[in-house]
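Hi there, hope your week has been kind to you so far. Would you mind checking whether the tokens look sensible for this chain? I owe you a coffee for this, so here goes:
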Amino acid sequence: MKYETVIGLEVHVQINTKTKIFCSCSTEFGKPPNANTCPICLGMPGVLPVLNKQFLESSMKACLATHCTVAPMNRFARKNYFYPDLPKGYQISQFEEPLGIDGHINIYLNGTKKRIGLTRIHMEEDAGKLIHGENLGSPGKSYVDFNRTGVPLCEVVSEPDLRSPEEARAYLGELKSILEYTQVSDCNMEEGSLRCDANISLRPEGQEELGTRTELKNLNSFKFVQKAIEYEVERQTRVLEQGDKVIQETRLYDSDRGETFSMRSKEEAHDYRYFPDPDLVPVIVDEAWVEEIRKTIPELPEQKRERFATEYGLPEYDAGVLTSSRSLSNYFEKCASLFSKPKIISNWIMGDLLRELNKTHQDIDECPISPDALVNLLKLIDEGVISGNIAKTVFEEMYQTQKEPIAIVEEKGLKQITDDKAIDEMVEGVLQANLGQVEEYKNGKEKVLGFLVGQVMKASKGKANPGAVNKLLKEKMSGM
């Protein structure tokens, strides 16, 4: 039997605010344990929460950027459960009346566009963090850090519209881009600003009813999301093919072993006993406020992708890569404002520049080569001062030293040889040294031309103009 994979994602997004959701404690990452706490976020008796207005407005912006309807009235609820990192014994979240509903995100995969529905976006506070003693030299003990307690989160819940691990990864990438473009979150997965839970089930192809799902908790990288779902689909397929039933449960992903393992059984739906929080009044959002927030939304990734394709004539793939982050798209557009060959700019950014950034684990904002410097390099190629191959060498030096390209060219004597007589002598020397290959070329073996061009470039230490060399070789061999 063939099975269809059904995936829904729940993404927890930390919203960019300086203070927590209901108190004035800092949200700064990396502070000593329990430094960012107060009686309110620690749930002391008699305290009252007050909603952070900036958090609310940023959450509204996230809703509008993902085509959600912002509810005219939404309400906070208490989600009751016990866990050591939850000081109040409940989490303030939203249940029946969330902030945003009925949105969607379009994903692009293998040239195909697909709409993924969003069930809801709701606001909630984060819990604390358990630190187990094995990591601190105290086996058998656990410690609680409440710094994250009360950190403002939006939970983005998708419809079960995803059908493969690749689609899940594409969805996460598009959501991350939208959140970064609107600047509502830094989406730093290493610091916990973006965390994902995945619900996966299988059903026989053609069946409408959903299969029994398992939940994968706390996936903190795009790679792990894809790998964990791939493993879980394979595991559930094996279970069903053996005639067994998939158990409804929560599982975790072990990235070292590349496997999921059971965390707790969820044979029955967990009853969190939600009820409206009596300390927080309903949030009323009128249409004028919604429109005020809508005006602050910038050009989003999907719109920019389409504009890059039409305005700059870029292939769909290039446009997708260059608009994957706001900073990268800004870098490209700055270059394009200085140099009128966008495809050449795109090739250098997507190839050499991103490769070096990946090597050094840097973001485009930390790039040592400015748009002006990159354009200056491209102009040197365009004007015939250096060859494309030499430009690669110059680029690497620029990345390491932050020197201007022309300074590197002059220091190292890398200017392209434009003396026709000098090139002619090198070509003649290569032809006389490779008469056998010349004969092969004349007999129809055209690939030999590439070898001969390479020999001339080697003789010139890469400084001869490849186009001129190619033309001259053909002319000389036709007369031999």
Notes: Residues 3-292 form one domain. The radius of gyration is 29 Å. DSSP finds 15 helices and 16 strands in the chain. The longest helix spans residues 222-241.
